[in-house]
Structures are given as structure tokens and as C-alpha cells.
């Protein structure tokens, strides 16, 4: 059974339809790389999965919770569906450890001590044990993004949504973040990534989704799709970015 | 044109003046605390609350910001008794101050809330926090940090503006000055002294608020 199931989702911003009937099945342990031109609806689709955006028709079910209805328990949904953003969005008034501890203490009501143990564990996982008490302004972009990943992991999500998480980084900092994501993939975390890192999508992804004009234009096993893109649009896209 | 300063003639009234000074200080401290609480709640309602509540807040804010403080004070003290709500001079003074600062600080705090990047709010929501948890733990701290200097200035403005409450015989520093001057006719001395007292109070408040800010918002 799918962990995330997207069926014929349509979404418009005013008169502009950005998702024109998207369907996608994502199983536990999948590492899905969503690629496509800007404006093709990739980020919007991702944001619909954890309810940051609403959609007009179709259905999304994530971890058994139907997303998008008026009665959707967004809190329950988001406890299981984490998200990491392009702009890191660390809370600047809190240290790295406090950033990680906030949601577990506020949402899950765990004790400060327990939350700090978890924070130490997830920050170690992203290689930032020694930066626990540093403020975001004292960290590089790559380090900030790794804290943001740790912050999501502290909630023990079943799916992690990554929205162009390396796009705001200097080129030399991209790899340290990708290594963390790759490690998560190896450990079996279900990941849905909107990305421009084609090599990463090919090497780490288990599934490639090419979006074009608000639709899934092509999907399949990354290595096969990259080796032999069927549609001219993907051929052209791969030619431009690859 | 020669005037002989005689500050000694104020000495018999030292207790009246001291009481007035203390009244002004307490009035400022209490109405600052309550006014900022009102302002925070109103700003939160306007940015995070339902539309109808935001509208009510907007009416409150515009009503207060576009009418003179002394008229608000008179309305509360002289007007409300017509509705059966009769308040003492001090209660009316406190209430008017809280309502006034509440409205001005609403706009200041709202500006702070709106300056917090939307991404921070989305990050909080994505961590399964509720809107109100996001407001409390992520937004307000950052908002207050940004608007603290503006809010400090507003507190001083309100403190100086509190002199107006003497007009309904609330026994503040200005009331004390009026009282003394009417007794010994030493207008020059008494208003000079009281002006200096306000000046000192304002400077003191400013440095106190600055020190407080350094403690609350530790430098990063």
C-alpha cells in the first residue's frame, strides 16, 4: 500500500491552473526526485502533501490521513510528514539544539531533557554535534540546512519533503547537505525531493518524476529515464541541465 | 527683568510633589504592562485571528489613534457616568492610558509580526505546531526584538502624555504642580522643577528600557 497517494489533484492560483490533474503513488522507502522547469508545479505539489497549500479537486492521502478536507487533522498529518525548505527557515532566536527541541517539547510534550537527548542524536546524525549551542547566524548555509533537516527528523517523520533544499546554497556547500540526505535514503527514510541536482536524482533516487505544465509528464526508474527519456520535453530538459 | 528664584518655598509641599511623582511612575508602569498586553493580543488577533475579530481591532485602533488623548480621557471620566459607569479619577486615568497605549502598540507590534519571514511560520506549521504555538514560540519573540526601540519610544511618549490626567484631578505629578502653584504662586519654580523631573524620568526610563532590552534580547 502506498504511503503517499496522490490522485488527480488540481490546483489553481486564481485563473492560473498550476496542477492539472497530478497522480502519484509513493511507497514506504521510496526516494522520489521531482524535477522540472520552474513554474511546472513541483513545489506546489510538495506543499499540498503537508497541507501548506490547499487544492481544488482530487485527493491526497498521506500515512492514512486524507489531506485537504476541512476536517483534516493537519497537526496529526504534520507529525508524520516533515518538510525542509529552500531557505532553511531556522528560528534565529534559538540555538541549533533549541530549534530541534522546540516541536518535540511544544507538540509532543516531551521533557526538555528528553528533547535535548533527541536533539543531540539527530544533530550527530547530520554531523553537527559540536554546533548544538550555536545560533543560526553563526552557521554556514550548509550547516543551517543540516540543522533544519535534524529539526524535522526530531519529530520522527515517516516521510520527509525536501523543497529544493540545496538551491540557496553556495556550490561548495551543496554536497554536505546531499550526503546527509543520501544517508537518510540508505536508512530507509521515505523522501520526496524537489531538486535540480540531476546526478543526485539519478544516483540516489528510486523514482524519478518529471513535471511539465502542471502534469506528471514522465516517470520511472531514474537511471532508465535519464538514459532514455521518452518525451521530447524531458530530452530537452535533461539536455539543458545535465 | 529680574526674578529671584525661591525654591525653598516648595519645601513645605515636598510630600505632595513626591506623591505626584510616584503616582506618575506607577501609572506609567502599570499602563505600560497592561497596554502592551492589550497591544499584543490585538496585534495577534489582527494578523492570526479570524477576519471579524481583526475588523473589530482595526476599528478600535483607528478610533484611538485618530482622536485626542484628552478627549478619550474626558469621555471615560465625564461621559461614561451617563451610562451608569462611574469611575474614580485614578481608575479612569489608568483605563484611558491602557486603551491609548494598547492601540498604538497594536500597530507597532503588528508591524513586527508582519516582518517575520513567512517561511518561519511555514516551518513551524510543518513541524506540527498550531498557529498559536507558532505565534507564541516563533513569531512574537522575533517581532518584539525588531520593534523594541519603537515600543520604547511609545512608552516614553505615553509617560509624558500622562500629564493630561491631571485634568480630571488624578493626582499625578502635574496635578501636584498645579496644586502647589495655586497655593504659593511660585509657578516658575514649581513648573521648572516638575519639567526637570519629567526630563529625568524620561531619560531614566529610556536607559532602563535599553538595559532591559539587552537582558531580554541577548546580543547575537
SSE order and pairing:
The complex is a heterodimer of chains A (242) and B (220).
Chain A: E1 4-13, E2 16-26, E3 31-36, H1 42-49, E4 57-62, E5 65-67, H2 74-80, E6 81-84, H3 96-106, H4 112-125, H5 141-153, E7 159-163, H6 171-186, E8 190-194, H7 198-204, E9 207-212, E10 215-220, H8 222-227, H9 232-241
Parallel strand pairs in A: 3-8, 3-9, 6-7, 7-8
Antiparallel strand pairs in A: 1-2, 1-4, 4-5, 9-10
Helix pairs in contact in A: 3-4, 3-5, 4-5, 5-6
Chain B: H1 14-48, H2 51-65, H3 69-79, H4 89-115, H5 118-126, H6 131-161, H7 173-184, H8 187-216
Helix pairs in contact in B: 1-2, 1-4, 1-6, 1-7, 2-4, 3-4, 4-6, 5-6, 6-8, 7-8
Transmembrane segments (chain B): 69-87, 147-170, 190-209
Domain ABC transmembrane type-1 (chain B): 21-209
Keywords (chain B): Cell membrane, Membrane, Transmembrane, Transmembrane helix, Transport
Description:
The complex is a heterodimer of chains A (242) and B (220). Chain A is of the alpha/beta class and 242 residues long. Chain A has a single domain (4-241), classed as P-loop containing nucleotide triphosphate hydrolases (Rossmann fold). Helix content of chain A is 38%, strand content 26%. Chain A has nine helices and ten strands. In chain A, strands 6-7-8-3-9-10 form a six-stranded mixed beta sheet, sandwiched between helices. Chain A is globular. In chain A, 50% of the residues are buried. The model of chain A has no long low-confidence stretch (mean pLDDT 95). Chain B is mostly helical. Chain B has one domain (23-216): MetI-like (MetI-like fold). In chain B, 77% of the residues lie in helices and 0% in strands. In chain B, helix 1 (14-48) packs antiparallel against helix 7 (173-184). The mean pLDDT of chain B is 95. The chains are: A alpha/beta (242), B mainly alpha (220).
Amino acid at each position: 500500500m502506498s504511503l503517499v497517494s496522490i490522485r488527480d489533484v488540481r490546483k489553481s492560483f486564481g485563473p492560473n491552473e498550476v496542477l492539472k490533474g497530478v497522480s502519484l503513488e509513493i511507497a514506504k522507502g521510496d526516494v522520489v526526485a521531482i524535477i522540472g522547469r520552474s513554474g511546472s508545479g513541483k513545489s506546489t505539489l510538495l506543499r499540498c502533501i503537508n497541507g501548506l497549500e490547499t487544492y481544488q479537486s482530487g485527493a491526497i492521502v498521506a500515512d492514512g490521513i486524507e489531506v485537504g478536507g476541512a476536517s483534516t487533522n493537519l497537526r496529526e498529518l504534520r507529525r508524520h510528514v516533515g518538510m525542509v525548505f529552500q531557505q532553511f527557515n531556522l528560528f534565529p532566536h534559538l540555538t541549533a539544539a533549541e530549534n530541534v527541541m522546540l516541536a518535540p517539547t511544544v507538540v509532543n510534550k516531551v521533557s526538555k531533557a528528553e528533547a535535548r537527548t533527541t536533539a543531540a542524536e539527530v544533530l550527530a546524525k547530520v554531523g553537527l554535534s559540536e554546533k548544538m549551542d550555536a545560533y543560526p547566524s553563526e552557521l554556514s548555509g550548509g550547516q543551517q540546512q543540516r540543522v533544519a533537516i535534524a529539526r524535522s527528523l526530531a519529530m520522527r517523520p515517516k516521510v520527509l519533503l525536501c523543497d529544493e533544499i540545496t538551491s540557496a546554497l553556495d556550490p561548495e556547500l551543496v554536497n554536505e547537505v546531499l550526503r546527509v540526505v543520501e544517508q537518510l535514503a540508505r536508512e530507509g527514510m521515505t523522501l520526496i525531493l524537489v531538486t535540480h541536482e540531476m546526478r543526485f536524482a539519478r544516483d540516489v533516487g528510486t523514482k524519478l518524476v518529471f513535471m511539465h505544465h502542471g502534469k506528471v509528464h514522465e516517470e520511472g526508474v531514474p537511471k532508465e529515464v535519464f538514459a532514455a527519456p521518452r518525451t521530447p520535453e524531458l530530452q530537452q530538459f535533461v539536455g539543458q541541465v545535465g | 527683568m529680574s526674578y529671584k528664584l525661591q525654591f525653598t518655598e516648595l519645601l513645605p509641599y515636598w510630600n505632595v510633589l513626591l506623591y505626584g511623582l510616584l503616582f506618575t511612575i506607577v501609572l506609567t508602569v502599570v499602563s505600560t504592562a497592561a497596554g502592551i498586553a492589550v497591544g499584543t493580543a490585538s496585534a495577534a488577533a489582527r494578523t492570526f485571528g479570524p477576519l471579524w475579530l481583526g475588523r473589530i481591532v482595526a476599528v478600535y485602533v483607528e478610533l484611538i489613534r485618530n482622536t485626542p488623548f484628552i478627549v478619550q480621557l474626558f469621555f471615560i471620566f465625564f461621559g461614561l457616568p451617563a451610562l451608569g459607569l462611574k469611575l474614580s479619577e485614578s481608575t479612569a486615568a489608568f483605563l484611558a492610558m491602557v486603551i491609548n497605549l494598547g492601540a498604538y502598540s497594536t500597530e507597532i507590534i503588528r508591524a513586527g509580526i508582519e516582518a517575520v519571514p513567512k517561511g518561519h511560520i511555514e516551518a513551524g506549521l510543518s513541524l506540527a505546531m498550531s498557529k498559536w504555538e507558532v505565534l507564541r514560540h516563533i513569531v512574537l519573540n522575533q517581532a518584539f526584538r525588531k520593534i523594541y526601540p519603537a515600543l520604547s519610544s511609545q512608552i516614553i511618549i505615553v509617560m509624558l502624555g500622562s500629564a493630561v490626567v491631571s485634568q480630571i484631578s488624578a493626582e499625578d505629578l502635574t496635578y501636584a504642580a498645579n496644586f502647589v502653584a495655586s497655593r504659593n504662586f511660585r509657578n516658575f519654580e514649581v513648573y521648572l522643577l516638575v519639567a526637570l523631573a519629567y526630563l529625568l524620568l524620561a531619560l531614566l526610563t529610556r536607559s532602563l528600557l535599553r538595559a532591559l532590552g539587552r537582558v531580554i534580547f541577548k546580543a547575537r
